[in-house]
Amino acid sequence: MDSTPFCHLTESLGEGIKIKFSSEFLASSLTRFLKQIRRNREEEAKLMANVPGWEVGTWYGEPIYKTLPTDTLIEPIFHEYFAHAAPSDTEKRLFFRLWT
């Protein structure tokens, strides 16, 4: 019964649905990631607005990663990513990552 054309068709359709769903999920999670990075940069700009010589994404004008091109994305560690979030939200996310 597994060798019928209908079974092969449904199996290949199932794989296509999995691929489509996974690519849409990946795209939405990347969009959320980039939006959070943007929010972090905006929050840093507001927070450090009164500090003379401060540039967002640098240490007083000096690039942190001097050996990388300026357009390279450095993924932040967990605590940098949630630096401006509520502590309760950060804890929920941390414990969710630990237990899943």
UniProtKB/TrEMBL annotation:
<dbReference type="GO" id="GO:0005743">
    <property type="term" value="C:mitochondrial inner membrane"/>
</dbReference>
<keyword id="KW-0472">Membrane</keyword>
<dbReference type="Pfam" id="PF06212">
    <property type="entry name" value="GRIM-19"/>
</dbReference>
<comment type="function">
    <text>Complex I functions in the transfer of electrons from NADH to the respiratory chain. Accessory subunit of the mitochondrial membrane respiratory chain NADH dehydrogenase (Complex I), that is believed not to be involved in catalysis.</text>
</comment>
<keyword id="KW-0496">Mitochondrion</keyword>
<keyword id="KW-0813">Transport</keyword>
<keyword id="KW-0999">Mitochondrion inner membrane</keyword>
<keyword id="KW-0249">Electron transport</keyword>
<dbReference type="InterPro" id="IPR009346">
    <property type="entry name" value="GRIM-19"/>
</dbReference>
<keyword id="KW-0679">Respiratory chain</keyword>
<dbReference type="GO" id="GO:0045271">
    <property type="term" value="C:respiratory chain complex I"/>
</dbReference>
<comment type="similarity">
    <text>Belongs to the complex I NDUFA13 subunit family.</text>
</comment>
<protein>
    <recommendedName>
        <fullName>NADH dehydrogenase [ubiquinone] 1 alpha subcomplex subunit 13</fullName>
    </recommendedName>
</protein>
